[in-house]
Amino acid sequence: MHYKHISTRFQCSHLVTLTSIIFLLLLNGCGSASPAIPTVMNSSSTTTTPQTNTSTVTVASTATVTSTVSTPATSLNGPTNFVLLTPLNYTAATGTNTDDSGNNTQLDPQNVETQLTGEIKRLLFVVSANNAVTVYTPGGTTPIAAKTAQQADGSVQISFSQTLNSLQGTVTLVFTGTLQDHQLNATYGQSFTPSLMSNTTASSVEASFTAQVKWVAASDIPTAPTNGQYQVLNKTSVALTWSPGTNAAAYDVYRLIPDRDQQFQLLATVTTTSATDNSAEVAQYITSTQGIIYAVFSVGPTGVENPGDVAIQVTGQ
């Protein structure tokens, strides 16, 4: 797997994002999109609707979640939600690209840390009333059931894994963390195996870190945007609009080019209900068979991203 940079503008077509997100888009129509509507477990169950805003998202045509829920720990004090605060304190960070001949290229540890931080800080941990834990990955609207286990020292171990399949290949991520008081000690790994039809290379990254936990109320998680629309301007740019989400302070706008990308890429974070993509990729891929897909997520006042998005597919241009 190649490394994709998370930035306000996608630039490196041969790199692969470290985000692991379930491809939840069921699109139809030509100027609007039908958003996926997930149920978010908060202090009260919240339903969210997608909309247009750029943020890093991972696309996969099929997804298999591997995880089981053990007897819930009693010290999580659910129902509640939490995120991990940055900066993360890394104790190790490694990454390797492997080409078709089996040759390995080591990735720069600092670059690995930067990219993983962009992924990890967007994880949303949701604790139910019976202390079962589910996790939303960046841009994902389908939660991952985590395994929890109470430890003898009073800490709680939280672990989950996820496998995402697409035409490009398979992405697998594994997370294991131990939560005690307000600190989480964790390991996080991600690997990519290309399909026979893909011209990308295999890759894997792994890191261990500590992070402070920030507990957030359900009211700090905004509702998802709705009514995503688009307009193509001279086949060189795409103007996106959407209806606002309640309590949204900003919107993350993601983009996926199915002919090229393995995952959604974060294009921008905006404070309005519109965004324009006038990058060179628009002119290059707007006429392709699969076109371009955008997804917009609401961001709350505490920086928490709603797990529901509005998806906008631009095709037939």
Describe this structure in words.
- Strands 3, 4, 5, 6, 7, 8, 9, 10, 11, 12, 13 and 14 form a twelve-stranded antiparallel beta sheet that branches.
- With 317 residues, this protein is mainly beta.
- The N terminus is likely disordered.
- 6% of the residues lie in helices and 44% in strands.
- It has two domains: 118 residues, Immunoglobulin-like (Sandwich); 155 residues, Beta Barrel (Porin).
CATH architecture of the largest domain: Beta Barrel
Mean pLDDT reading: 77
How far apart are the termini? 30 Å
CATH class category name of the largest domain = Mainly Beta
Q: Considering DSSP H and I runs of 4 or more, what fraction of the residues is helical?
A: under 10%
Poorly predicted segments: 1-74
Number of helices: 2
CA-based gyration radius: 19 Å
Q: Which structural class matches the secondary elements?
A: mainly beta
Question: What is the CATH fold-level name of the largest domain?
Answer: Porin
Strand content: 35-45%
Helix/strand order: EEEEEEHEEEEEEEEEEEEEHEE
Count of folded domains: 2
What is the β-strand count?
A: 21
Described by the principal axes of the CA atoms, the overall outline is globular
- Main sheet attributes: strand count, strand direction, barrel closure: 12 strands, antiparallel
Summarize the SSE layout with pairings.
Elements: E1 39-40, E2 46-47, E3 62-64, E4 80-84, E5 89-98, E6 104-106, H1 109-120, E7 124-127, E8 133-136, E9 144-145, E10 147-150, E11 156-165, E12 169-180, E13 183-194, E14 202-216, E15 226-233, E16 237-243, E17 250-256, E18 265-270, E19 274-277, H2 280-285, E20 292-299, E21 305-314
Antiparallel strand pairs: 1-2, 3-11, 4-7, 4-14, 5-6, 5-14, 7-8, 8-9, 10-11, 11-12, 12-13, 13-14, 15-16, 16-19, 17-18, 17-20, 20-21
